[in-house]
Amino acid sequence: MISNTNKKLLWQIPFLLFLAVGTVWIIRQHATMPYKTCNGQIFGTTYSVTYQYEDDLQKAIEDELKKVDDALSTFNKESTISHINNNEATARNEMFTEVFLLSKTISENTGGAFDITVAPLVNLWGFGFKNGEEPSQAKIDSIGTFVGYKKVNLLDTYRNARAKSWITKDDPRVMLDCSAIAKGYGVDVVARLLRNFHVDNFMVEIGGEVVTSGVNPDKQPWRVGIVKPSDNISNNGQELQTILNISNKAMATSGNYRNFYYKDGQKYAHTIDPKTGRPVQHGLLSATVIANNCATADAYATAFMVMGVDKARKVLEKHPELQAYFIFSDGNSNTQTWMSSAMQSYIKQ
Q: What are the angstrom distances between the C-alpha of 307 and each of 102, 285, 298?
């Protein structure tokens, strides 16, 4: 006689076999599922997304990028940030709020080297000194009175959803510009969308800022290059300094080696120090940062370009969640590199 326990086991065997066969089928289907790639333009640059999924997600991707543009683009007159800069009433926007709060945190962590209010000083200098002369110290000081991340704040509560009191400025002339974090945030938004679709393997890139997940079509870690700094614009970023294996991480790079101007024998970088109101004068040519999200990597890469190698290393000591690769010029005009301790594990062997 078969016991009740054995009867239960006999009934379970077909179910377990079905489950095993189904699991193998799903794994095989996933392994043979093709990768798709979509490309386009956004934020004044290009984007490219490669992902393994059965459906075409380009429209969904572009819809998400449009939301980022509507929140953070200073070129979009109807964006949240444009209304804030014009001191106009606007509804509170979740994406703007997320980026604003992250920006404030990174500003604090870098002693103000990252600052989304620095745009008026950047505009004053103008790339290539378009006005033909260096701005006066008096003009720099004047604009500096309404530059500073502490001069604008987000209120936790506000009475009217259409009121402009949810963000306050110490001076109405304070202008916000998230261009040093928006590309990275856009990458994060697309990565978030793909994860919501349960896409395991993908790479999202916007203007050189990257988030990866899983493996590439060759079933290998995603490979991302760091461009070798060169003043020669004809190089067009073809020569690489090194290649990194990046999986389930974000990477961003900021550099000064192409955007500069010579005047009276002095080389001026395009990066403006929010504290001095002047172009930075150190030897850091390129800063690459690996972080858990691309907005963070993007912002810190910009901050490190302001700070220079020595100050940036001190910040990295306090933030082991960040890894960095610096390319810099020493006092003898020789190119050198420095990387944080765990960065070596990302370098392609």
A: 19, 12, 15
Quick one: DSSP state of residue 331? T
Q: How far is CA 226 from CA 128, 187, 231, 237, 289, in A?
A: 26, 18, 15, 9, 11
The model's pTM is 0.86
Assign 336 to helix, strand or coil: strand
Instruction: Collapse the DSSP code of 303 into the 3-class scheme (helix H, G, I; strand E, B; otherwise coil) and give the result.
Output: helix
Q: What number of other Cβ atoms are within 10 A of residue 162's Cβ? A: 10
> What tokens does 297 get?
């990597």
CB 119 within 8 A of CB 302: no
Say if CB 73 and CB 181 are below 8 A apart.
Answer: no
CB 128, CB 270: distance < 8 Å: no
Measured in residues, the chain has a length of 349
Task: With both helix axes pointing from N to C terminus, report the angle between 94-109 and 58-72 in degrees, rounded to the nearest 10.
Answer: 60
Per-residue pLDDT tens for 215-251? 999 999 999 999 888 755 555 556 889 999 999 999 9
Q: 209: which strand partners?
A: 206
Distant-in-sequence, close-in-space partners of 180: CB < 8 Å, separation ≥ 6? 114, 116, 254, 298, 299, 302
Contact (CB, 8 A) for 244 and 344: no
> What pLDDT digit, counting tens, does each position of 301-341 carry?
999 999 999 999 999 999 999 999 999 988 777 889 999 99
Residue type, 27: I
Q: Which residue spans within the chain are E strands per DSSP?
A: 35-42, 45-52, 152-154, 167-169, 202-206, 209-213, 222-227, 240-246, 250-255, 260-263, 266-269, 284-291, 323-329, 335-339
Q: In terms of Cα–Cα distance, which of 233, 126, 278, 116 is closest to 184? A: 116
**Amino acid of residue 161:** A
Q: What is the DSSP letter of 320?
A: T
Task: Provide the b/e sequence for 90-102 (b: ≥16 CB within 10 Å).
Answer: bebbebbeebbeb
**Residue 98 contacts residue 192 (beta carbons within 8 Å):** no
Would you give the end-to-end CA distance of the chain in angstroms? 64
